[in-house]
Design a protein that fits this description.
This protein is an all-alpha fold. It contains eight helices and no strands. The protein is elongated.
């Protein structure tokens, strides 16, 4: 269904994002999703869904982290993107023993902590920061 909508509306960025999301959820793979996400971004550079799918579709961890950083620069108030950046930076820090990625993760989580009022989120962020600050790379 989504493919037929995009076929009829080839310049509708939101329709392309919906199709890319459907592809992601059904396991069509990062190449197909990334191609659609980039196409949607070209049509509408302010479509956050396109940017999220662009970041998600990167298979290599460090490059994925950098894509999430791009998203957070373009959309600084996007807490979901910032959480994804922090999570991906944590993964890179652990896998590659990269202190700069660890610093990025900590700083990003600290920024999220400073903004949230939700008790459960604050607790989770504080626990995460305690753990990350103990890491020795």
């Amino acid at each position: 269904v989504f493919e037929s909508v995009v076929e009829r509306l080839p310049n509708d960025a939101q329709a392309i994002v919906v199709l890319a999301n459907a592809y992601w959820l059904t396991g069509r793979g990062p190449d197909a999703v990334g191609k659609l996400a980039r196409r949607a971004m070209e049509l509408d550079a302010e479509n956050r869904g396109a940017w999220h799918l662009y970041a998600l579709s990167e298979s290599e961890p460090r490059a994925r982290m950098e894509r999430w950083r791009e998203v957070t620069i373009r959309f600084p108030a996007d807490q979901l993107a910032r959480a994804a950046l922090a999570d991906n930076a944590t993964s890179v820090a652990g896998a590659e023993h990269d202190p700069l990625a660890l610093d990025l993760a900590v700083a990003t989580y600290e920024g999220l902590l400073a903004e949230t009022k939700n008790t459960d989120q604050r607790r989770a962020l504080k626990d995460t920061l305690v753990t990350l600050r103990k890491w020795k790379l």
